[in-house]
Recover the amino acids of this structure.
């Protein structure tokens, strides 16, 4: 019996993290989102020649909180994320999609 070949990343995600819509998949996607967000915070902070401590002071949190956010090991409220990007002089745009009753995706 030959090993199964996967055609897409979605198939691999379904196998290892659960199908879309399951609690396991939601947890995986949330963690991935936080990791990507953390990397972006770190990248912009470094481009601004700012330390984690300096950024923390600007928004009223400890250096440890900035470190956790950058590593993707901590979640944050939208308000905190907005404060961080404002302190970094970066624009934040939120994009929300949802399906209507017919299954049509709306933005």
């Amino acid at each position: 019996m030959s090993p199964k070949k996967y055609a897409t990343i979605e198939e691999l995600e379904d196998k290892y993290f659960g199908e879309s819509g399951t609690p396991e998949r939601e947890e995986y996607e949330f963690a991935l989102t936080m990791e990507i967000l953390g990397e972006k915070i770190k990248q912009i902070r470094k481009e601004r020649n700012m330390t984690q401590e300096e950024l923390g002071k600007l928004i009223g949190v400890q250096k440890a909180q900035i470190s956790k956010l950058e590593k993707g090991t901590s979640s944050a409220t939208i308000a905190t994320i907005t404060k961080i990007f404002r302190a970094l002089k970066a624009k934040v745009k939120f994009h929300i999609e949802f399906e209507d009753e017919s299954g049509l995706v709306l933005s």
In short: The chain has a mean pLDDT of 87.
